[in-house]
């Protein structure tokens, strides 16, 4: 089963300094039919105005992945991390028993455009943690690059480790570039197109569109136009 989620049907919030699109219920946007997919709970597409950001706030028992599309995102947290996240980098923060952090766009004249992703952890009460890695564009060109995988899994390699039963691939597609990915039929998958256009299993996606897949066995991606896509393999 494949369900198309159009960009225009996402929740929206405009706080002036922050413009956000919510793929699933979040904050003041609530849709009982869109509470997540498998153990994927949040995909927020956020744009932070220059010189503004999220003040210090707390999280618990969530795996939080940040993926920057444009600009920089300055991260600082209560467990001693202070990093700038740039395009091509993947950051994972394990909120666990509790962590406080801030996220800020220090640029005087550029918007930070990024994806905030929440995954339900495999268990509650984990120790807070942090990891950040860079993935070169050439490693994602015309293919799906594994960028996050469960800790201890055989395929984790140099991907960011997740304390969640989930994997995340990222790919860049243009023109005739094409890729396929086998899907475990007992699991769920989610495809989110961050920008451009892309044909996925016969569905033409525009930026912000997504496909929710249940008991499918394969993905075929191609006919892209400046496409950047995220693909999730998820616990059912």
From TrEMBL:
Which SUPFAM superfamilies did the record assign? RmlC-like cupins
Q: Which domain of life is it from?
A: Bacteria
What the entry lists under CDD domains is as follows: cupin_Yhhw_C, cupin_Yhhw_N
As to how many cofactors bind and how, the note says: Binds 1 Fe cation per subunit.
CC cofactor: Fe cation
The entry lists its GO molecular-function terms as: metal ion binding
Q: Which residues form the Quercetin 2,3-dioxygenase C-terminal cupin domain?
A: 146-234
Identify the residues that bind Fe cation.
Answer: 57, 59, 101, 103
Q: Ranges for the Pirin N-terminal domain?
A: 10-119
This protein's UniProt keywords: Iron, Metal-binding
> Looking at the Swiss-Prot or TrEMBL record, what is one Pfam family this protein matches?
Pirin_C_2
Which PANTHER family does the annotation name?
A: QUERCETIN 2,3-DIOXYGENASE
Q: So what family is this one in?
A: Belongs to the pirin family.
Protein name as catalogued: Pirin domain protein
Q: Say which species the protein is native to.
A: Leptothrix cholodnii (strain ATCC 51168 / LMG 8142 / SP-6) (Leptothrix discophora (strain SP-6))
Identify the taxonomic lineage of the organism of origin.
Bacteria, Pseudomonadati, Pseudomonadota, Betaproteobacteria, Burkholderiales
């Amino acid at each position: 089963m494949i369900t198309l989620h159009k960009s225009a049907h996402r929740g929206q919030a405009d706080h002036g300094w922050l413009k956000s699109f919510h793929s699933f219920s979040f904050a003041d946007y609530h849709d009982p039919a869109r509470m997540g997919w498998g153990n994927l709970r949040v995909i927020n597409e956020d744009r932070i105005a220059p010189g503004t950001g999220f003040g210090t706030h707390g999280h618990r028992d969530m795996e939080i992945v940040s993926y920057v599309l444009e600009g920089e995102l300055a991260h600082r947290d209560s467990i001693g991390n202070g990093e700038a996240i740039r395009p091509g980098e993947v950051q994972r923060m394990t909120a666990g028993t509790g962590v406080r952090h801030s996220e800020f766009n220090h640029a005087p004249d550029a918007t930070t455009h990024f994806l905030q992703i929440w995954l339900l952890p495999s268990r509650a009460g984990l120790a807070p943690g942090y990891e950040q890695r860079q993935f070169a564009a050439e490693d994602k060109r015309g293919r799906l690059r594994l960028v996050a995988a469960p800790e201890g899994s055989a395929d984790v390699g140099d991907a960011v480790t997740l304390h969640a039963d989930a994997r995340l691939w990222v790919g860049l597609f243009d023109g005739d570039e094409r890729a396929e990915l086998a899907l475990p039929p007992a699991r769920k998958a989610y495809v989110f197109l961050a920008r451009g256009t892309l044909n996925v299993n016969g569905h033409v996606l525009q930026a912000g569109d997504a496909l929710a897949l249940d008991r499918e066995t394969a993905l075929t991606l191609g006919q892209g136009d400046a496409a950047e896509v995220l693909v999730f393999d998820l616990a059912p």
